[in-house]
Amino acid sequence: MIATNKRPRGRRWAAAVTPIVGLLLVVVLAAPALAYKEVSNPVFDGAYNPNGVFIQDGSYVMNVGEVQINITNWGLIGSTYSSTRPWSDAPSCQWPAGSGNEYLWAAGLWVGGVVLGERLVSSGGAGSEIYPLPEVEHTIYEAMGGRIMRPAGNTAASGKRLPDPQPDDDDDDLVDEEVIDGFDDDGDGLVDEDFAQIGNQMMVLTNYDNTRLAREIFADHTPMNLKIVQTTFQWENDLVDDFVGFDYAITNEGVTNIEKVYIGFFADSDIGPRGVAGAAEDDMAGSWPEEHGSVGLVRGSDGEFAPVQVGYMYDASESDLLDGFFGIVFLGHDVDPTGARAPTNVGMRTFQSFSGGSSFEQGGDPSNDDEAYQLLSAVRDEWDNDTVTGKQGDFRFLVSAGPFANLPAGETLNFQVAMVVGSGLTGLLQNCAEAWLTYNGIWIDQIVSVDLVEGGTLNPGQNGRETMLCREDFPENIYRNFRPDYMDTTCVNAEWLIGQPAVSDEDMFTYEVDGRTKTCAMFNMDNCFECARQLGDPCTPMDFIEERWTCNKPDSQNKNACTGVDGNETQINWLVGMAPPAPGLRLWPTDSRVHVFWDDKSEVTEDIRLGRIDFESYRIWRADNWDRPFGSSEENGPESSLWQMVAEFDVVNNYVNIRQTGNTTVRDTLPLGANTGLDGLMYTPRVLTDARYDGLAEAMQSVVDADTGGFLRSRPTLRLPDSTPDPRYEVLLPWESNPAVLDTFFAAAARPAGEDVVGKDATRYYEYIDREVHNGFLYFYSVTATDHALTRENSDAPLQVTGPGLSGDPGSSFGNTTPGASAQSAEERERFGVNIYVYPNPATRDALAEYQQMLPNGEDPTGVRVTFTNLPMSLNTISIYTVSGDLVQTISHDGTTGSGQVSWNLMSRNLQEVVSGVYLYAVQSVDERFEDFIGKFVVIR
Hints:
47 strands, five-stranded antiparallel beta sheet, mainly beta, Beta-galactosidase, Chain A, domain 5, nine-stranded antiparallel beta sheet, globular, 4 domains, 10% helix, 12 helices
């Protein structure tokens, strides 16, 4: 297998260190017959999908950050936004979120290899050759907060991961053994019960390159029998919300080895605002750093340098110019320190740009696998230069990594990449550095102690040695010649290296690997990388000779950028500090009011890095004046500039401010925030005291008390798969028809912790009433949480609060609602009379614009509306006529829900916009206590 030393230039692992074995192993297998996965001819370009697994409606969007990207489960990344496909209204790669400014038309993974002497490429993108299988399980799985959100139903799935102190969600002594795919991957009878939640939002899908559908669409496609698991991640924090991370696991499911493998990422940007013609014709392409094939260094937010190699595109339009740069940055892939099986370090093999309309020989798109493979495998001398000013065009670009000498049958190749957007090249590079820091994650101490061969114990992960290599996996003469501090020899002098200490018996310890006890030692595989991060430039042999690199010095005071120090030998990738998760949110609109309700999830969730609760405050946000820019939607939310904080409520606490006065250290204890407290917001759900549900609290408590192991994370399903009642929950059947009520009673039930009993806290609820709203207008609301900073004064001191910390982003979790008049009851009608009217009236062009006019879309072709208000509490029909009596439109309204208003978009029943004129309307109610009402309004266009 290829090196798995848990470095950013190697595979990602979430458990303890795995030794590197078989670096030079080459497996030769017999040539197979071609294998296919069965897919029964779905309708590729249509909205109707008989298989039910192809996501074609643009409903899966990475949308908790500032970059919104459409994800499909059939190889396309983006939404081909200027086309008229069912998915094209979704954000393609929109930045900032909700702005309507697009930085990608289509992108996809490319995998090239040689099978039985033939050069093959399986590609994603707009013309994808990789698809899901026809089972309903082969959809996209979205997870947030350690729970699977879509598809709904699997309430037992759980996503804790290291460094959480209890990452084994199902207590089977395995950690994160499940890939979210709807199947029982480990044979324990449970599905997706123990996965690793990464980021605020995570999507997982599985594709194959050997479906019959691919051959039906592309007759010349020859598959390599690949299974491709794609996982995408996004974060909400301002520092890390300008990129989306992608993690690929590419498995050879055939019986023939794939040789000379290259992995690439293709992008066709077409940068420009939606709705503007010619966006594809003025793109510029380039790569950084300027020295082709080298790695650049960009100072990150941690103060150290991050390695960056990025291919990018930007806009060169003479009008409607966008200032963003779109880039694809490589973060990780499998490596081999010897270079025999894989590159020695993570990096780009090549950067290739090409344009539409030209032949391949003239710099155009490849037309077959051989040409595509030429691009993937191009040598450094064929690295394309940046587009020259004035030569903008309809460019695409490809970046690749490799070669990986051999992908044997049954083995998996791992690859990590990010799509990044930033303001100008400088902003792009800064965000690339943050993407790398996020992928690089943290190092933790998983192996506390090992027994040394010559006696004594060792806590692995000292003096820069982060990787375990075992003697049994190498020829003895090779292993004995390893220099533990300098395993990366690309930046050191060979003669000088001979004089450095080789691995000795004093370094060795015993360790069990896959049930076998081996003799191992710790090694520094990334000394050149550490040195570059410390010094800010690629290191030379003199930097080591003159000891400017200090990671291997036990008494060094500069351990910045060092791995394998302080006993930390296990890397956790894709980890960054995050604010507490957003609470559950519910909105209740009333007359000129919006009631905002939320739960206490933010207060009871531990910080994954610290292993403790660090909640500080709730912030209530509202976004007004949204006009639905092209490519945006209510589901994906407004642009970030529209969010405004309307209130904040925090816990009562203090923080310690440490300052120096001369030689004296002064510790000031100061209030942290306004210290409003949360008690004034407390809310008791009405259903808990509703007489209709008498007995439910006791019944639910008996169910909660019986769940001593804490396996129920939410209200249990009351029936078995065959629809018969589950005997364990029969006491709840009288309220079966009220699932929302059952949810509330389950959340409100508590179970004290005790011996062999996992505790359960009762959920607390809060309410905030926003009175600064207008009827008929659409408002977005979000409740986010902040935490406080916790630091130690020294390594032996306890954590203490030292100031404000991170805050959640309102764009990551929100709802929307429209306040309006309540429906008029029969008693109110009798007492106060009729008060039905239309607004705005007259509906002039200016009045319609002021009444939150939207940009039109497919579901709302006008973007304007008038509203009928104070309607009866009944099922109502509103008939609209011209003054000559012609029926224009009929609108249904259900006032029994309590809502007393309904809007009309000025479209006739013939799907034409109405013209200026006087219109009559009649309101007729099913409830005979409400007499028919006739009114009129005026439209002036």
